[in-house]
């Protein structure tokens, strides 16, 4: 999934702050980025149409919140990239994780190991987490 620079910034802002309306997002970015309220509204609408935000009508405005959490979104991006390079005998996804793991410190590796064990336990219990 391709996101523009402003889309990325807005999505990050919503992950950090929670539910917002267009005016709140505009106020956040107006100080350091500029732009117009219309640009922010269009960006929020594009993110909604891409399935990354949900929205609920409140009076004359929409309240937006993330429809997907940050970790799930990053996982989706990684899967998209891996599938773009095709499936081969050697999994490109596993190769990517192996390569990335060399940059992790011991605490991060421990957390990765914990998450893998959690996933295995869920799989053995018959549910996928």
Describe this protein's structure.
This protein is mostly helical and about 130 residues long. Helix content is about 60%, strand content about 10%. It is built from six helices and three strands; from the N terminus they run αβααββααα. The protein has a three-stranded antiparallel beta sheet. A hairpin with a 2-residue loop joins β2 and β3. α1 packs across α3 and α2 packs across α3. The two termini are about 25 Å apart.
The whole-number mean of residue pLDDT values reads 87
Strand elements, count: 3
The helix/strand class is mainly alpha
Trace the largest sheet across and list its strands: 1-3-2
> Which strand-content bin applies to the residues?
5-15%
Topology readout:
Elements: H1 5-17, E1 20-21, H2 22-30, H3 37-49, E2 53-58, E3 61-66, H4 70-84, H5 92-101, H6 106-124
Antiparallel strand pairs: 1-3, 2-3
Helix pairs in contact: 1-3, 2-3
Brief descriptors of the model:
3 strands, three-stranded antiparallel beta sheet, 129 residues, single chain, mainly alpha
Can I get a quick summary?
The chain is mainly alpha-helical. The chain contains six helices and three strands.
